[in-house]
Amino acid sequence: MDAVVEQQVKTAHPKAAIVTTCILAALAGLMFGLDIGVISGATQFIQSDFKVSDSVVEWIVSSMMLGACVGALAAGWMSATLGRKRSLIFAGVVFIGGSLFCAVAGSPAILIVARCVLGIAIGVATFTAPLYLAEVAPEKIRGAMISTYQLMITTGILLAFLSDTAFSSTGNWRWMLGIIAAPGVLFLIGLFFLPDSPRWLLMRGRREDAQVVLAKLRGDEAVVKKEIAAIDEQLKTKQHGWSMFSQNGNFRRSVGLGVLLQAMQQFTGMNVVMYYAPRIFKDMGYDTHAQMWFTAAVGLTNVLATLIAFGLVDRLGRKPILYAGFTIMAIGLGVVGTMMGLGIHSRGEQFFTVGMLLLFIVGFAMSAGPLIWTLCSEVQPLKGRDFGIAASTFTNWATNWVVGVTFLSLLSGIGNAQTFWLYGGLNAVFIVITFLLVPETKGVTLEQIESNLMSGKPLRRIGR
Ligand code: BGC
Q1: What is the pLDDT along the chain (464 residues), one digit of tens a residue?
Q2: Distance between CA atoms of 294 and 179, rounded to whole angstroms?
Q3: Is the CB of residue 396 below 6 angstroms from any atom belonging to ligand 1?
Q4: Are 42 and 163 in contact (CB under 8 A)?
Q5: Contacts with 371 (C-beta within 8 Å, 6 or more apart), sequence order
Q6: Following DSSP, what letter does each residue of 393-445 receive, concatenated?
Q7: Are 40 and 277 in contact (CB under 8 A)?
Q8: What is the pTM of this model?
Q9: Of 72, 346, 423, 463, which shows the fewest CB atoms inside 10 Å?
Q10: Cα atoms found within 13 Å of the Cα of residue 344, Cβ hemisphere only
Q11: Is the CB of 298 under 6 A from ligand 1?
């Protein structure tokens, strides 16, 4: 190793470097959360300002997800050619521009376009940030770093709910949508301090740069050498996503599993609450002020319950937590639907129904929220990993769009109680699907999962 690398190793502060690097990249999760959360408090004011129907509101909410589908599809190519860091910078710039564009939109149609632009940023970021995190974090803390990403998503949602609550007294939805550009600027500035991903540098043949970055991050020459050799070895395995998908039935199974898992995550109904919480509280009989505060309580519950998953995933395993989560969600939504069907008359009944909705949030945040993302990256074989993760991330946004664009129509079409029962019922079905198809990947190496998959074992046996 040459003198430059030796010099870097001597002056490195590896712990600080790795932690700041990962926190910065995880801030992409914060942007994701801000985007998801910000719209819920704004819709009622947008609707009365523009005097539009529920179906236009559904489009304003869900156009962002369409943009994110496009962003997620483009992100694979972008992060390979421009690199991870520059893709994140692109996402940061578009995020800031998109938020400001939303704030000044003069008509519902322009707002729909602006939300779509914002979505592109989030689509790119949701593909690139976890990839970058996995590439710069040392093996030992990789899991924790990916969970940090989910924690940042929930924190972003909470911050957006709180800021919406603060602006709700004036009803100024333009400020609600525009203010999130401010954390976007901080994120963007931070991004300029990120090193390029060493794996990407090696992919581009920039060996010396890769060594320098790793030396700074790891602070140990021997570790740097070992890691460079390991990446070299991995890079020999060329990514053959599409051809592998068309020729290999086992790979099609893992891609199908990733797609199914993300569809399950979205059809739990979580984003119904994320996007329309104030409307749900309105239907429970609460005034605007109470609606906003309960929405903030939803956000806080989401953050706190995510911490439960942190403690449990590597101890209990994925499947028991998913069973518990889907069961809690099915019960929570089933009871909310029943209360809405019976009619919520007293204060006690109101509180009880809010409690059940919060129980549902706990169920999601401790299980499907973080775990589905984890499982989706674990089940793909090395050669098809980028393709497999792009397919599942795309599905996350596409099904997210379906949920967002149909909720108000469902409420008016089949009724409040039936809508919640529908989602509650789907959660019950997911318990069965988890049993039949989801593997337990706790403590199993990725190589073992891959060899089980390729030997044709049933999906639920590709883990332990
Ligand atoms: C999901 C998002 C959801 C968020 C809520 C994420 O894992 O992908 O769609 O809004 O969790 O915390």
Answers
A1: 567 667 777 766 777 878 887 787 778 889 889 989 999 989 999 999 999 999 999 999 999 999 999 999 899 889 888 999 999 999 999 999 999 999 999 999 999 999 999 999 999 998 888 888 878 877 666 666 767 888 999 999 999 999 999 998 899 999 999 999 999 999 999 999 889 998 899 988 999 999 988 888 888 888 888 888 888 887 787 767 888 899 999 999 999 999 999 999 999 999 999 999 999 999 999 999 999 999 999 999 999 999 988 778 778 889 999 999 999 999 999 999 999 999 999 999 999 999 999 999 999 999 999 899 889 988 988 888 888 988 999 999 999 999 999 999 999 999 999 999 999 999 999 999 999 999 999 888 888 999 999 999 999 999 98
A2: 21
A3: yes
A4: no
A5: 309, 313, 318, 321, 322, 325
A6: HHHHHHHHHHHHHHHHHHHHHT-HHHHHHHHHHHHHHHHHHHHHH----TT--
A7: yes
A8: 0.88
A9: 346
A10: 23
A11: no
Q: Is 271 in the pocket of ligand 1 (CB under 6 A)?
A: yes
246 C-alpha vs ligand 1 centroid, how far in Å?
30
Residue nearest to atom 6 of ligand 1 (CA): 369
Whether residue 270 has its Cβ less than 6 Å from ligand 1:
yes
Determine contact, residues 402/266, Cβ cutoff 8 Å.
yes
Domains in the chain, ordered, with CATH? Answer: 1-236 (1.20.1250.20), 243-464 (1.20.1250.20)
Residue nearest to atom 12 of ligand 1 (CA): 154
Atom 11, ligand 1: residue with shortest CA distance: 369
**Is 53 within 8 Å of 43 (Cβ atoms)?**
no
Residue with tokens 């979505």: 119
Query: How many Cα atoms are found within 13 Å in the side-chain-facing hemisphere of 103?
Result: 18
Is residue 82 helix, strand or coil?
Answer: coil
Q: How far is the CA of 108 from the centre of ligand 1 (A)?
A: 26
Distance from residue 386's CA to the centre of ligand 1 (Å): 21
User: What distance in Å separates the CA atoms of residue 34 and residue 38, rounded to the nearest whole number?
Assistant: 6
